[in-house]
TrEMBL record:
<comment type="similarity">
    <text>Belongs to the UPF0065 (bug) family.</text>
</comment>
<dbReference type="InterPro" id="IPR005064">
    <property type="entry name" value="BUG"/>
</dbReference>
<protein>
    <submittedName>
        <fullName>Tripartite tricarboxylate transporter substrate binding protein</fullName>
    </submittedName>
</protein>
<feature type="signal peptide">
    <location>
        <begin position="1"/>
        <end position="41"/>
    </location>
</feature>
<dbReference type="InterPro" id="IPR042100">
    <property type="entry name" value="Bug_dom1"/>
</dbReference>
<keyword id="KW-0732">Signal</keyword>
<dbReference type="Pfam" id="PF03401">
    <property type="entry name" value="TctC"/>
</dbReference>
């Protein structure tokens, strides 16, 4: 067994000769730095905050982030600027935040593809779990299974029956390889023992002509873009993902209620770099919860087809849920063989 002094390795040097100092003197050197960090965290925020959205301007995540920023400016008393950093399925903006100083002044508001990234990108430059601090979940974002009004498919049971009768004859659309809709479709195949053909598009609007013409059997798309078409009678909704029905479409059953036990759902959420002080994280979590409870934020979420998080979750609760989502999506990707690079 090693003796006491040799078990303690030098971790800080502040003398000009470069030799290791006694532990007591080393602690005296480090203590002012720790105190300075603590004071800075207690004084948070005292300068502008930047929120990076890793998707183009005008999308669902961007709209939520910009409205949230308005409320945070009022609550935190500092400018809150939203910057779009799109590219690589959201990975470019996320990587920039991961490399930022963990002081609470550089944040990320992103969506569920962030949790899927480790399973889909072999060359990912960050780890969503190890390199980030979960701050708050803003809303859940369900996905909608839709088909053309004239389709003989009237339920998830019809999809399963048709796929079993003629494997690989039924196709489904998503908005891209590795997207949440793609993996929901793969989950359906795994859970029901069926074979269907995945056809990726660059969004719901790009897929719409093929859905309406019957070229595609059904689609799994975001509820925001599909709900108006369902309400207008151009499409019929067969199921919605997530643990609960959407307020905007209360008559549509969840995927689990329709017989496929899969309730992982998309979301909008806030993260910071790994190592953010707990006081800063909790301050941001409280500010976000206050903002998301306001009537205008609730209306923005519900009218967009998403679901408010009620009751608001703590940063720790959201962190546990996020890690569970990373594991769930990762398992689906591994079991199905889905990948991007």
């Amino acid at each position: 067994m090693m003796d006491g002094p040799r078990m303690i390795k030098p971790f800080f040097r502040c003398n000009t000769q470069g030799t290791a100092m006694p532990l007591s003197r080393r602690l005296l050197c480090v203590l002012p730095l720790l105190m300075a960090c603590a004071v800075q965290a207690q004084d948070y925020p005292n300068k502008p905050i930047r929120i990076f959205v890793p998707f183009p301007a005008g999308g669902g995540t961007d709209v939520v982030a910009r409205k949230l920023a308005e409320h945070l400016r009022q609550d935190l008393g500092q400018p809150v600027v939203v910057e779009n950093k799109p590219g690589a399925s959201g990975n470019i903006g996320a990587d920039q935040v991961a490399r930022s100083t963990p002081d609470g002044y550089t944040l990320l508001v992103t969506a569920a593809p962030f949790a899927i990234a480790p399973a889909m990108f072999k060359s990912l430059t960050f780890d969503p779990v190890k390199d980030f601090t979960p701050v708050a979940q803003l809303a859940t974002v369900p996905l909608l299974l839709v088909t053309r009004t004239e389709s003989p498919l009237n339920s998830v049971a019809d999809i399963v029956a048709a796929s079993r009768k003629a494997p690989d004859s039924l196709s489904y659309a998503s908005f891209g390889n590795g997207s949440p809709p793609h993996l929901v479709g793969e989950s359906m195949k795994l859970l029901t023992g069926t074979r269907m053909v995945h056809v990726p598009y660059k969004g719901g609007q790009a897929a719409l002509p093929d859905i309406l013409s019957g070229q595609i059997g059904f689609a799994i798309m975001d509820v925001v873009s599909m709900t108006p078409l369902v309400k207008a009678g151009r499409l019929k909704a067969l199921a919605i993902t997530g643990p609960q029905r959407a307020p905007s479409l209360p008559e549509v059953p969840t995927l689990s209620q329709a017989g496929v036990p899969f309730d992982t759902v998309g979301w909008h959420a806030m993260f910071g770099p790994a190592g953010m002080p707990a006081t800063v994280t909790d301050r941001l979590n409280a500010a976000v919860a206050k903002a998301m409870a306001t009537p205008d934020m609730r209306a923005l979420i519900v009218n967009g087809g998403s679901i408010p998080v009620e009751p608001a979750t703590s940063a720790a609760q959201w962190g546990r849920q996020f890690r569970s989502d990373v594991e769930t999506w990762g398992k689906v990707a591994r079991d199905s063989g889905a990948t991007i690079d």
